Amino acid sequence: MKCDVISLENKKVGSVDLDEAVFGTAVRADLMSRYVNWQLAKRRGGNHKVKTRSEVQGTTAKPFKQKGTGHARQGSKRAPQLRGGGVVFGPHVRDHGFGLQKKVRRLALKSALSSKQAEGKLVVLENAKMKNPKTADLIKNLGKLGWGKALVIDGPELDNNFQLAARNIMGLDVLPSQGANVYDILRSDTLVLTKDAIEKLVERLK
After folding, report:
1. Which domains can be identified in the chain, with CATH numbers?
2. Which contacts (CB < 8 Å, 24+ apart) does range 6-13 have?
3. Cα of 15 vs its chain's centroid, Å
4. What is the largest CA-CA distance in the chain?
5. Looking at residue 173, what is its pLDDT?
6. pLDDT truncated to tens, each residue of the chain (206 aa)?
7. Strand order in the sheet with 122-125
8. Is 14 helix (H, G, I), strand (E, B) or coil?
9. What's 172's DSSP letter?
10. Cβ–Cβ contacts within 10 Å for residue 176, how many?
11. CA–CA gap between residue 159 and residue 169 (Å, rounded)
């Protein structure tokens, strides 16, 4: 499928042929959902922690004698039913991540790219390079382009000037081609791919 290629000044500079196997596949919402859950699960810190009765500081002595007090028998002040005691079945430090097959991840990423193409929210940029790292200059260009909340995916190496100019603009994210992921693609209004990014994504997913 043919797609126009534009410059940062919003001028048409050519066209590119998008591979149907990557940008024209069936959109699988179920696979994209599994991918996003997998991705967000890996981000979780998992550092929540409570103390059990073996970790609470306190005496090991019996609080009072077994019989004759009229109260329920107690063996330790660190027991969970007493104030200041340990917690039963509380959270512990752990990894929330889980496995997801490479085939599923590949198909989910194809679905995300294809969904943006089908919605008309895929833009092909000639290159993401700037002469100077000026945020003001990039903001002027974005005003002409009208992307809104956008994700720009470049080739393996990002242009340092473009990266510096973009990092202070709210709603504009920049990633190298190897960092392309379903979550960031879906949460953006416009997906912007450079010609280098398309080449690397097709090489990675086909």
Report:
1. 2-44+101-205 (3.40.1370.10), 50-90 (no CATH)
2. 6/123, 6/124, 6/125, 6/126, 6/145, 7/125, 7/126, 8/125, 8/126, 8/128, 8/130, 8/138, 8/141, 8/145, 9/141, 9/144, 10/141, 10/144, 10/145, 13/126
3. 30
4. 94
5. 94
6. 888 999 988 889 889 999 999 999 999 999 999 999 999 999 999 999 999 999 999 888 899 999 999 999 999 999 999 999 999 999 999 999 999 999 999 999 999 999 999 999 999 999 999 999 999 999 999 998 988 899 999 999 999 999 999 998 999 999 999 999 999 999 999 999 999 999 999 999 98
7. 12-17, 2-6, 122-125, 190-194, 150-153, 172-175
8. strand
9. E
10. 16
11. 16
pTM for this entry: 0.83
Query: Which of 187, 173, 151, 192 minimizes the C-alpha distance to 35?
Result: 187
Say how far apart CA 16 and CA 1 lie, in whole Å.
8
Q: What is the pLDDT of residue 73?
A: 93
- CA-atom Rg of the chain in angstroms: 27
Torsion-angle region of 92 (φ positive above 0: left; ψ -120 to 50: alpha; else: beta): beta
30's tokens: 């179920």
Bridge partners (DSSP) of residue 190 are 150
